[in-house]
Amino acid sequence: MNKFLISFGMILIVSCNSSTKNPADNPPMVKLITLDPGHFHAALVQKSMYPNVDSVVQVYAPGGSDLQLHLDRITAFNKRPAEPTHWKEEVYSGNDYFEKMLEEKKGNVVMLAGNNQKKTEYILKSLQAGLNVLADKPMAINATNFEMLKKAFETAKEKNLLLYDIMTERFEITTVLQRELSMMPEVFGTLEKGTADNPAVIKESHHNFYKYISGSVLTRPAWFMDVSQQGEGIVDVTTHLVDLVQWECFPDQAIDYTKDINVLSAKHWPVNMSFSQFKTITKLDSIPAFLKQNVVQDSLLQIYSNGEINYQIRGVHAKVSVIWDYQSPGGADTHFSNMRGTKTKLVVRQGAEQQYKPTLYIEPINNTPDYEKTVTEQVAKLQSKYPGIELKKISTGWEMIIPEKYKEGHEAHFARVTQKFLAYLNEHNIPQWEVAGMLAKYYTTTKALEIALKTKP
Fold first, then answer.
1. Beta bridge partners of 58
2. Are residues 182 and 116 in the same domain?
3. At what angle do helices 97-104 and 119-128 cross, to 10 degrees?
4. Do 125 and 179 belong together in one domain?
5. pLDDT (tens digit, 9 = 90+) per residue, 432-447?
6. At CA 106, angle to CA 100 and CA 108, rounded to 5?
7. Each residue of 8-24: pLDDT tens digit?
8. What is the pLDDT of residue 25?
9. Is residue 99 assigned to a domain?
10. How many CB atoms lie under 10 A from the CB of residue 67?
11. Which residues pair with 204 in a beta bridge?
């Protein structure tokens, strides 16, 4: 990890940490336990090494391809030419892997990224056993899970443990700068309230089933296409989008889901995947029995991975949506974000015009010489925090020119989140707004799923 990654990451960690305690001079060693790693995100947490984290990792999982793919990814990180890691995986793969993990407790942090069907149960029981939890999203995929998650947070508080989910998108530089500019009233004004038909905040994410991770085509487990195990798109990827709405619109503020969230409408619709496409990404020669009920027209697999949520958060109308393709033009996952203030719109686009690279725009409602001077002065202040950023004048306002050194990419962001988790863990404290925010976003997504299931596709 280069010096910029470390320094920038630590700046963000310190700025977000609200603890009144001082870190211990010699923090206790963190010992990781990886539980049932069925998703590649589990491996990405170990793409970097961390101070005070033991290089020996305990892995508890059922034997099979999911486990082997995970171990292969860790081996690849250990053997890469540039900045190799030196993890040692100690594996238990008996059928009683979860019970064995709880019994042995060979670590103090459980890392969860895999099949979501039992994830919330894993979270709760791990905390009850006295273990901290770092979990990939989603931590809840339905209303029943959400009730269990509420209990998990109560348990964490009672036992002084940390439960945290992996929100990588907070570290995407265009999102970071969009948030910074939205907190400058001279540039942004105040956040509009919007309407249901014209939301003040719109976030949209396009994802691909066929994609490259660490230079190789990603092999996906068959259960990833089963919404009873992975969760529908409306409770999966939208977790990131709902989190960003909260994090950007109400920075460091506790959102009370019982008062501040009103889900107005939601819908979901399927992606149809051919058998040849399914075979390409799973390496399987047949569709498993648990997916047969989702086969239509004998050769198409129907997956409810698309969804849209229209809701109000503290009176502000927001819309988030996720759209999946087998493989979209450009090949990369893309993001669109629009925040509308009284003075300007802050827009992130990542389409063909941007060569599928996220690009931030400032698009004023009413551009004047005085406003242009103000924008220039305020961005100059940001340049002291993010040296090298510049404004490029365009017909609609300005494009933010961002140096390549800030464009780390999705995989690098897992180290950032892990660093933040470790800082909170070292402090034995997590800001109240973080916990409230996690409850609020999983309430929003699971409530939206309930509405979508009642709405005719």
1. 33, 90
2. no
3. 20
4. no
5. 999 999 999 999 999 9
6. 115
7. 444 344 344 444 445 44
8. 56
9. yes
10. 22
11. 321, 336
Measured at the CA of 61, the angle between CA 57 and CA 62, to 5 degrees, comes to: 155
**Distance between start and end Cα atoms, the chain:** 46
Last residue of a domain, one of 165, 187, 219: 165
Residues 157 and 302 in one domain: no
Token pair recorded at residue 121: 């149960």
Residue matched to tokens 């905390």? 127
Question: What whole-number distance in Å separates Cα of residue 44 and Cα of residue 236?
Answer: 18
Residue 314: give its domain's CATH number. Answer: 3.30.360.10
Give the confidence band of 5 by pLDDT, cuts at 50, 70, 90: very low
202 and 122 fall within a common domain:
no
Structure tokens at 163: 């439960």
Distances (CA, A) of 303 to 51, 300, 309: 41, 10, 18
Range of the domain at 95: 31-165
**CATH code for the domain of 42:** 3.40.50.720
Give the strand pairing for 316-325 and 201-208: parallel
Distance CA 337, CA 204 (A): 6
Rounded Cα–Cα distance for residues 417 and 44 (Å): 11
What amino acid occupies position 26? N
Closest among 440, 439, 420, 417 to 430, alpha carbons compared: 420
Q: Of 165, 198, 230, at which residue does a domain stop? A: 165
Over residues 173-223, the pLDDT tens digits come to 999 999 999 999 999 999 999 999 999 999 999 999 998 887 788 899 999
Rounded to whole angstroms, the maximal C-alpha distance in the chain is 69
Amino acid at 45: V
Tell me the three-class secondary structure of the chain, residue by residue. CCHHHHHHHHHHHHHHCCCCCCCCCCCCCECEEEECCCCCHHHHCCCCCCCCECCEEEEECCCCHHHHHHHHHHHHHHHCCCCCCCCEEEEECCCCHHHHHHHHCCCCEEEECCCCCCHHHHHHHHHHCCCEEEECCCCCCCHHHHHHHHHHHHHHHHHCCCEEECCHHHHCHHHHHHHHHHCCHHHHCCECCECCCCECEEEEEEEECCCEECCEECCCCHHHHCHHHHCCHHHCCHHHHHHHHHHHHCCCCCCCHHHHEEEEEEEEEEEEEEHHHHHHHHCCCCCCHHHHHHEECCCEEEEEEEEEEEEEECCEEEEEEEEEECCCCCCCCEEEEEEEECCEEEEEECCHHHCCCCEEEEEECCCCHHHHHHHHHHHHHHHHHCCCCEEEEECCEEEEECCHHHCCCCCCHHHHHHHHHHHHHHHCCCCHHHHHHHHHHHHHHHHHHHHHHHCCC
The radius of gyration of the chain from alpha carbons, rounded to an integer in Å, stands at: 22
| Structural domains in the chain (count) | 2
